Amino acid sequence: QVQLVESGGGLVQAGGSLRLSCAASGRTFSDVAMGWFRQAPGKEREFVAGISWNAGASHYADSVKDRFTISRDNAKNTVYLQMNRLKPEDTAIYYCARGYSRLVLTEQVNYDYWGQGTQVTVSS
Asked: Residue 26 pLDDT more than 80?
């Protein structure tokens, strides 16, 4: 089993920043890709960012490119999402997920374990 616990969410004004963390325990973390997804009220969950097993590659949704940065520390079994220049449309529950493979994939079916999520609210 793998447990993923997100933290760092909260309420922030538009233009502000937040840093999300996802701590993993249990089975292997360091040899698989990790991803961040989000679900806004009334919308389906969507891919936000992903990072390969060794942080050699990352991929972002167009809506967050150049504002968000994903990183990981395999020694700490933790993946991060630095979110800058936040917008009200970034308001959502943010989930981290463990990938099946080493490569970054955007489809949710390619992720096998999910955290409970952390709420991010951006006020205008």
From this structure: no
